Amino acid sequence: MPRLAFAQSFWDGYDTLEKPVRAGVRKAMAKFQAMSVAELNADKGLHLESVENARDRRMRTIRITDFWRGVVLAPDDGSDTFLLVNVLPHDDAYTWAAKRLYSANTATRALEVRDAVALDELTPLYASAARTAPRLLFADISDGTLRELGIDDQVLGAARTLVDKTQLEAFSTLLPEDQLEVLQYLAEGFSPEDVYRDVVAVRRPADAPPEPVEDLATLIANTPARIRTVTGPQELEEILHKPFAAWRVFLHPSQRRVAHRTSYGGPVQVTGGPGTGKTVAALHRVRHLLGRSEDSRILLTTYTNALATGLREMLGLLLDEDEKLMARVEVTTVDAYAHGVVRAASPAALKPIGDREQRRLWEKAVSRLDLPFTAQFMAQEYRHVILGQNLRDLDAYLGASRRGRGTGLGPARRREVWSGVERFEQFLRDRGETTHLRVCARAADILADGPAPYAHVVVDEAQDLHPAQWRVLRTAVSPGPDDLFLTGDPHQRIYDSRVSLGSLGIATAGRSFRLRVNYRSTEEILTWSARLLAPVTIDALDGEGTDSLAGYRSLLHGRRPQVQGYASRQEETEALVERVRSLLDEGVAPHEIGVCARFNLSLDTAEEKLTAAGIPVLRVKGRTARGAEGVRLATMHAMKGLEFRAVSVLGVGEGAVPFAREITPAEADPLQHEADLLRERCLLFVACTRARETLSVTWSGEPSPFLPAVT
Ligand SMILES: Nc1ncnc2c1ncn2[C@@H]1O[C@H](COP(=O)(O)OP(=O)(O)OP(=O)(O)O)[C@@H](O)[C@H]1O
């Protein structure tokens, strides 16, 4: 019997096919599993036929319904795997199939596809323009180097005509996938050595023979990032019936590399801009670790309860709801886990209070002791220095470094601070209360006294954790191979946590990886959003050095973000209602639209107006009923980790973004002032990068100083 495989190009459209067409696909595919090659060729219903004037002689079409055809790549080399590459209306299927050429990449050894006809037509046009261009995009890179990176004759010809990245983008839908990625990396300025490591080596099979093997079955096996092989009728039924989630099957090679590595010597960090599939990589790592032993237990954490609920659902999908496997993974937030640990040790645990109540207690302590500090200063000193370094007594505080704080404090002043801290903690004790970070400190003490409860800890949204939370995670697993796997993006740091992971016993040197391909948003949305961060430097995830978005890009294209000021709040809200209405008219479902603002108050107005216009809305606060219909309204903080087809960010005006009240005056502490501004800037970046296809950013009055100047 022949074997069957499905290319990602087929899945891209499968979910949108109508039911009878999908039924036709299932029927046709079942034949491939039931018949011999000779029977397939003779089958009248399937009507497997070659395509006239095809660039690829292996191209075949099959009948799916009266009007729809499947495009199949048939082996002509004695191997036995058929590859379904597309399903299209009759005429489109023939046109599509005739132009496409599948080939083996000489460096990655994977199967790639190009639009050979369009490349042949376009290259001479670009070549004549290139003759007079002052500089060509790949002028500095020799043919030999390009060939070593897998660039073949036709692509080389095209690449030599390009003058800039925009032209490369124009070619992006025509070029073979791996070769395109090589060219994109080179265009970003990465060295050929880096490109070989990050693009070629991660794809090339470890046991690749010196000379490329060209039979279709081997090439298909070499292309797990884009092709799924199906082993039996049951698997076929399952995958064609369920809604297809590409992230479960097709990992980008850079995701696969980090998630599937058999073992790491110690903690691993995976960074990448928004939407680069870090959460997906973390989930695949969990599945990989589960498969390595029968009974190991894993702690999987993220930042909020709402994100933990989402993560649990995704893990269920990835593990096919296997209860035994699911039972071995605890999916939670660090705070919730720490509470559990403390409660288990002393059932009469104290009640944690929020930031606002803490602020009130600091105010009380400052005024009772007549301290020469503001409540805000005390709260920050407590968070960053005292809890940050786990200082337990005055002597430790007197000797501590206050790096990162912008005001000097001599011993006398430190004594005053400490008296305030003691008073604050006394208030908490008197009221039977505590704070989340104090719970974490307590949990880390308890965990340090016993055997580590987990074999592995996997952390998503790692950028926002405080050192006290890291201490919990560090003590939840013994130091050693595969202890911690962290994913995060320092550009999305919105809670002012400063860490040096190395000093917390989480050294990731030599085990740091970066994801660069955005799967969520269009290139237009990314480029615009990245400009929000252009003026600032971002500290690395582990606190050592800085991070950057170099090479960060998307393969998707769409409309440019709409960035618009209005004369009044009322006009801005009216424009929002219009925008949402036209999105709904275009067929975007209400839950695929996100509206966000810095404050809940601005969302109240939006909610009122949308509701009055008869548009269903739903506020995202903590746990939102996921299935419920309605346009999602969320504060910028609550947007973390979410995504929508369309996002409207409201109220991006002066005074709101950054929120003046949350910014420490520069005179009080210049470093904290800068940190506060950065946090607010990142918050806007997070909000904008939730958009998949459409982004609008609006304000009334004066715009936020963070918005890039209109060009
Ligand atoms: N290999 C993949 N194939 C298809 N889709 C993918 C893949 N990896 C990720 N995605 C999709 O891209 C989107 C972003 O992925 P994910 O949430 O993992 O990114 P992230 O890096 O964690 O984002 P953020 O930092 O912004 O929260 C999701 O819709 C996810 O399903």
UniProtKB/TrEMBL annotation:
Gene Ontology molecular function: helicase activity
Keywords: ATP-binding, Helicase, Hydrolase, Isomerase, Nucleotide-binding
Record: residues binding ATP: 272-279
UniProt xrefs under Pfam families: UvrD-helicase, UvrD_C
Reactions catalysed according to its record: Couples ATP hydrolysis with the unwinding of duplex DNA by translocating in the 3'-5' direction; ATP + H2O = ADP + phosphate + H(+)
Domain (UvrD-like helicase ATP-binding): residue spans on this chain: 251-522
PROSITE patterns found in the cross-reference section: UVRD_HELICASE_ATP_BIND (PS51198)
EC number(s) on file: 5.6.2.4
Superkingdom: Bacteria
Listed InterPro entries: DNA_helicase_UvrD-like_C, DNA_helicase_UvrD/REP, P-loop_NTPase, UvrD-like_ATP-bd
Protein name according to UniProt: DNA 3'-5' helicase
Biological classification of the source: Bacteria, Bacillati, Actinomycetota, Actinomycetes, Kitasatosporales
